[in-house]
Specification:
Blueprint lengths: L5 E5 L4 H15 L4 E6 L1 H6 L1 H10 L3 E5 L22 H12 L2 H9 L7 E5 L5 H8 L3 E4 L4 H12 L12 E3 L8 E3 L13 H13 L3 E3 L3 H15 L3 E3 L10 H6 L8 H9 L6 E5 L8 H14 L3 E5 L6 H14 L4 E5 L4 H5 L4 E6 L3 H9 L4 E3 L6 H12 L2 E3 L19 H12 L3 H21 L4 H20 L1
Parallel strand pairs: 1-2, 1-4, 2-3, 4-5, 8-9, 10-11, 10-13, 11-12, 13-14, 14-15
Antiparallel strand pairs: 6-7
Pfam family, one: Glyco_transf_N
GO molecular function: UDP-glucosyltransferase activity
EC number: 2.4.1.-
Length: about 475
């Protein structure tokens, strides 16, 4: 008799981590697996459309909302997501608050039928390891990053590479890496050596080493050398099951994925339909990156001077009086025939999949990169923080499907001064290289299209990611039978 597998998904409450785990929930549930997705009240409101759609379709996903203890840890009421955090101290408090979810969640899971058979949790939710051991089930880790970062983090900490570097400008090159990756110390993901995070980092890495495997939102043809080496050095299975969002082709899900769009989607599509194929540069920097008013204005000046059609996302936090005044003083009127501005949240997957999009200026968050790759869109890379500078290396130096804007310093989550890292002329040069008719741009477009075909093939019947999902479910079912 076949047993019913029950996966419990515990994301980190940050949009870049939560959105792919929602995709994972749909992917697993589409195979008949029972899924429990853990969230909190404020975060549940962000994915309300996903919750309602799952209930309406009858797919076996249960969303469990746990109270988040903001006030007990000195956090503002409603600060249940990392994009609400405004300081390093609050970031540490936020992660400590997450650990208190263990008791309530364990009680809920003990009462569920079918009982849980596997936990897949964000690597930063390392407290789930004790819970999984208490319940007698395996725990797999997930971080929302690609294989390059997984391998880099492991080798970097294992080799104590940071101890061998004297200053922030000095470069780090890891021995034995499948690609030659050279990166300045100052651009290495900050959580690897921020002093306040030392204890947290040690416990997280300890539980990573004790986990039963790793799930990565990537695909074999994209990162096979990194994944193969990572699997070898950690001595456990690495499941590549991406791009996960491609497994759900429902148009309504794709359009509303992650948040409610800040623009009427029909209006957005009508504008895109009016543009020539592969003519538009899409500019968006994710959910956490913040841009100073002067930098926003410089971006606009660059887009205008490039003479390239553009679709530009300006997040709500960047809509200062200064920016809005500048936009209204002629910019929008001058560019109205070839530019569209979205203020807030954009239906990014819907946009990137449109034939009019010819390039993507991105902050290099892994979800955004994977979405651009899946639709064969070449990129202009503008990393801000976290592992984004490593991801830029993958796009520009390894895959050669993008152009670096030239940023050499990290941008903090919350910009506390009016900084300008990229000038108008930098924008014009990058757009010209990517969107131009020369050999360089054409070669990048061809390589991007080829990668897009491979990404879509990976999730089709017989593709590497599709097969890995099957094997993952089979392994969990086999462990359930052994435990009976």
């Amino acid at each position: 008799m076949d047993v019913t597998a029950h996966f419990v998904l515990v994301p980190l409450m940050a949009q870049g981590h939560t959105i792919p785990m929602v995709d994972m929930a749909h992917l697993l549930a589409s195979r008949g697996v029972h899924v429990t997705f853990i969230t909190t009240p404020a975060n549940a409101s962000r994915i309300e459309s996903d919750i309602q759609r799952a209930r309406g379709s009858g797919i076996p996903i249960q969303f469990v909302s746990l109270r988040f203890p903001c006030e007990e840890f000195g956090l503002p009421q409603g600060c249940e997501n990392l994009d609400c955090v405004t300081s390093r101290e609050h970031a540490v408090a936020f992660l400590h608050a997450c650990r208190t979810l263990r008791g309530p969640l364990t009680s809920i899971l003990r009462q569920q039928n079918p009982p849980p058979s596997c936990v897949i949790s964000d690597t930063m939710q390392y407290w789930t390891a004790d819970m999984a051991r208490e319940l007698g089930i395996p725990r797999l880790t997930f971080s929302g990053s690609g294989g390059l970062f997984h391998l880099f983090r492991h080798l970097f900490l294992q080799n104590k590479s940071n101890d061998k570097v004297n200053n922030g400008a000095e470069s780090v090159v890891l021995p034995g890496f499948p690609h030659h990756i050279e990166i300045a110390r100052a651009l290495i993901p900050g959580s690897l050596f921020i002093p306040e995070m030392a204890k947290f980092r040690e416990e997280m890495m300890e539980e990573d080493c004790r986990s039963d495997g790793v799930v990565v939102n990537t695909f074999s043809d994209l990162e096979a050398p990194c994944i193969d080496q990572y699997q070898e050095v950690i001595g456990k299975k690495v499941w590549t099951i991406g791009p996960m969002f491609l497994c759900n082709r429902d148009a309504a899900y794709i359009a509303a994925r992650g948040n409610k769009a800040s623009i009427d989607q029909a209006q957005c599509l009508r504008w895109l339909d009016s543009m020539q194929p592969s003519s538009v540069i899409y500019v968006s920097f994710g959910s956490l990156a913040r841009t100073s008013p002067s930098q926003v204005i410089e971006i606009g000046l660059g887009l205008e001077a490039s003479n390239c059609p553009f679709l530009w996302v300006i997040k709500a936090g960047n809509r200062s009086a200064e920016v809005e005044t500048w936009l209204s003083q002629g910019f929008e009127e001058r560019t109205s025939s070839r530019g569209l501005i979205i203020r807030g949240w954009a239906p990014q997957v819907m946009i990137l999949s449109h034939p009019a999009i010819g390039g993507f200026m991105t902050h290099c968050g892994w979800n955004s990169l994977l979405e651009g790759i899946a639709f064969g869109v070449p990129m202009i890379t503008w990393p801000h923080f976290a592992e984004q500078f490593l991801n830029e290396k993958l796009i520009v130096e390894v895959l050669r499907t993008g152009v670096a804007i030239g940023v050499k310093t990290m941008t903090p989550w919350q910009v506390d001064k009016d900084v300008v890292l990229v000038k108008k002329d930098d924008m014009v040069r990058a757009v010209s290289r990517l969107m131009g008719e020369g050999e360089e741009g054409e070669a990048m477009r061809n390589r991007s299209r080829e990668l897009g075909h491979k990404a879509r093939a990976a999730v089709e019947e017989g593709g590497s990611s599709c097969e890995n999902v099957t094997l993952l479910i089979q392994q969990i079912k086999a462990s359930m039978k052994l435990a009976q």
